[in-house]
Amino acid sequence: MKNRATAAIAVVLLICAVPALSLAMTAYNQDFEALNQSSTSALADAGWVVYANVFGPDWAYWYGYGVFPAPNDGAAFCAIVTGEGGAAQGNQQMSVFSDYNNVQHGIGAHIESLVFHEQAIDAGVVGQTWIFDFQAKLGNLAGSTTAVAFIKTLNPAAGYATTNYIPLDMTSTPATWTDYTLSLAIDASLVGQLLQIGFASTATNYEGSGVYYDNVNFHTETVANEDLSWGGVKSLYK
After folding, report:
1. What is the pTM of this model?
2. Domain ranges, ordered by start, for the chain
3. What is the pLDDT of residues 167-202, one digit of tens each?
4. Class of domain 4-223
5. Is 127 exposed, middle or buried (0-12, 13-18, 19+ CB in 10 A)?
6. In Å, what is the CA distance from 86 to each residue of 90, 91, 198?
7. 3, 25, 121, 186 from 192: Cα distances, Å
8. Which of 43, 73, 107, 128 could make a disulfide contact with 48, Cβ separation 3.0–4.6 Å?
């Protein structure tokens, strides 16, 4: 997220709509099966939010907008889809793509669209390593579009400056479901900061950008040997 402060007014207006941050970091898992696909607020109700950064054709930074509740309408950022999974993914998945409602796609601007789940880091997790597991499958990503998964921390006391960014390139993820893992060790300097797990795409000219995600699991490595219920897959962490 380039500059969260540019959207401060919007954040205030949406404070009742965006899910409140937890007072303590907690494990999160989501297989999307229980979400109501017909509800435009289904992903937002499950704690997902979105943000976008806009760069000009020459990659000069123009502006950012958000944080907004994640939509579920198929036109911008993300949607619940069906029929893309196998036995381990079930019937519903999350598709992440560009904000095609931004008309500056048409003038060659590069739209970085982020879909993420956010929590506040508290002192109780200092010294722990947190794991972000998920499964992914290529959708209609095409052209010059790129996609990433990430763990990110931001410092509200420093203008939401990014203090950690751990990306994983998803641009070439295969068209079959594949397991992925990211991790972050929490130290005392991060207490009071925001931690995000999520997915992003950067696209222009309305090029295809979809990647499917499922079986999202965010947890400490202390639960690593437990069955995570995604088809009996176990974490490799000890």
Report:
1. 0.85
2. 4-223
3. 999 999 999 999 999 999 999 999 999 999 999 999
4. mainly beta
5. exposed
6. 6, 8, 22
7. 18, 11, 5, 11
8. 43
